[in-house]
Amino acid sequence: MKILIIEDDQLVANIYRNKFAHEGFEAETAPDGEIGIKLVGSFRPDVVLLDLLLPGTTGLEVMRWIRAQEEFAKLPIIVFSNTYLSQIVQEAWKTGASKCLSKANSTPRQVIDAVRGVINSTGSPEQKAEAVTIKPVASAADAEDEASFEARLREDFVRDLPATLSALRTFLQGLTRAENEAGRLKQIEQLYRRMHSLSSNAGVVGAADIALMADAMEALLKELQDKPNNINASTLRTVALALDFMGNLFDRASSPATPFPPADVLVVDDDAISRRAITYALEKAQMKSISVEDPVKALDTLMHRKFELIFLDVDMPNMNGFELCTKIRTLPKYAKTPIVFVTGLNDLESRANSTMSGGNDFIAKPFLFIELTVKALVHVLRSRLTPAKK
Fold first, then answer.
1. Residue range 312-362, pLDDT digits in tens
2. In angstroms, rounded to a whole number, what is the distance separating the alpha carbons of residues 370 and 213?
3. CB 40 within 8 A of CB 12
4. By three-state DSSP, how is residue 109 classified?
5. Can you tell me the distance from the alpha carbon of 339 to that of 355, in angstroms, rounded to the nearest whole number?
6. What's the angle, vertex CA 34, arms to CA 32 and CA 35, rounded to 5?
7. Residue 291 pLDDT more than 90?
8. 383: Cβ–Cβ under 8 A, 6 or more apart, which residues?
9. Does domain 2-136 have CATH number 3.40.50.1820?
10. Residues 6+ apart with CB under 8 A from 193
């Protein structure tokens, strides 16, 4: 059984090649889409494992080429996607993906199981029989070897994190100092490629917290790369905030990661369109939200239910966001809950008022969905990590 792994991160590609070889597959790798297309014709794999976010010839373009060839029209293709780039994932399904996996949330064992599942459901009788034949018999020794393998991967990953953080900070400094769009785009590209690699590697080693943040940051940087007009003071603050927080996550990388249960978030905004936009951005991060338009009702809701994060509009009738924030801080269980202002006001006085009233952060309207998602993840994860530091 042959598998072709089209993946631009050589470390990740080698990990998967070695794992599949250990499982009895004949595995080959391609570092980009162009070479991947050539290998489909010469190597003639039984299944393709494809990263969608490739430089140059993209994963979608590779899929379109494969599906246009009559002899490969039914070749099983499992794609790696970014959790937050839903449009690309939808395009992958339309183009003929057999299965889509979130790269940041997939361990090698899960990927191997997915490959076997696709072969068993779509492969020929001969392929199905071979997949069963090459499957090694599980044993205590096999389990011990796999655990040892995963531990070594994790050690290597943690060892390289300081260098990764240093590189990310260097690119961020270059981005903030860039004097023109070409310079900014160059630094965004560097940040994006590093974050893409970090997301992949964190997923492989099971560093769930880092993978979660890197996945969202990769999507934000991709958005800024594709639409440079969105590179502004607000998005740059969000990128800087996230990179600073990722340094905290890196410090904890040696400890076992815990699952990320959905956070309860309160959204207070008198504009229905704005409320829907914020709710949508939170849903992308698997957060549950309640939205209200009246500040007085918001106070009543806060007294009867606990939220981990609060988003406030500033310009609201009866009570503005700054006044509401001040009242929220008088509630004992909300003394330290993260509060983020979402506002079209971006002047120095508004920033000062947001801090003086007890706010933790603010994001400027109009905002990118993924920018708000990143903000939400940073504040919820940081709040959850605070008790561990005491």
1. 998 898 899 999 999 999 999 999 999 999 887 665 556 666 667 788 998
2. 12
3. no
4. helix
5. 10
6. 70
7. yes
8. 308, 309, 336, 337, 338
9. no
10. 55
Residue appearing with tokens 């040892």: 148
Measure the CA–CA gap between 313 and 315, rounded to whole angstroms: 6
Residue 128 pLDDT greater than 60, yes or no: no
Using the 8-state DSSP alphabet, how is residue 320 labeled?
A: -
Distance CA 107, CA 200 (A): 10
Q: What is the rounded (10 degree) CA torsion for 361, 365, 369, 375?
A: -10
The reply to whether 2-136 and 264-389 are identical in fold is yes
Out of 3.40.50.2300, 3.10.450.50, 3.40.50.11930, 1.10.3470.10, the CATH code matching 264-389 is 3.40.50.2300
Find the helix or strand (DSSP H, E) in which 183 lies: helix 181-205
The mean pLDDT of 282-309, rounded to a whole number, is 93
- Show the beta-strand stretches assigned E in the chain: 2-6, 26-30, 47-51, 77-81, 99-102, 264-268, 288-292, 309-313, 339-343, 361-364
**Angle made by CA atoms 92, 153, 144, in degrees to the nearest 5:** 105
Q: Domain 153-251 belongs to what topology?
A: Four Helix Bundle (Hemerythrin (Met), subunit A) (1.20.120)
CA dihedral 133, 138, 141, 143 (to 10 degrees): 120
The 10s digit of each residue's pLDDT in 206-247 is 888 999 999 999 999 999 999 999 998 889 999 999 999 999
| pLDDT score, position 388 | 43
Rounded Cα–Cα distance for residues 169 and 153 (Å):
24
Neighbouring C-beta atoms of residue 254, cutoff 10 Å:
11
Cα end-to-end span (Å), the chain? 52
Cα–Cα distance for residue pair 146/193, rounded to 1 Å = 29
Q: Mind listing the pLDDT tens digit for each residue in 355-367?
A: 677 889 988 888 8
In the prediction, which pLDDT does 39 show? 97
Q: Which two tokens stand for residue 209?
A: 């917290």
pTM of the model: 0.86
Q: Where are the domains of the chain?
A: 2-136, 153-251, 264-389
**Other Cβ atoms closer than 10 A to 170:** 14
- Measure the CA–CA gap between 289 and 316, rounded to whole angstroms: 19
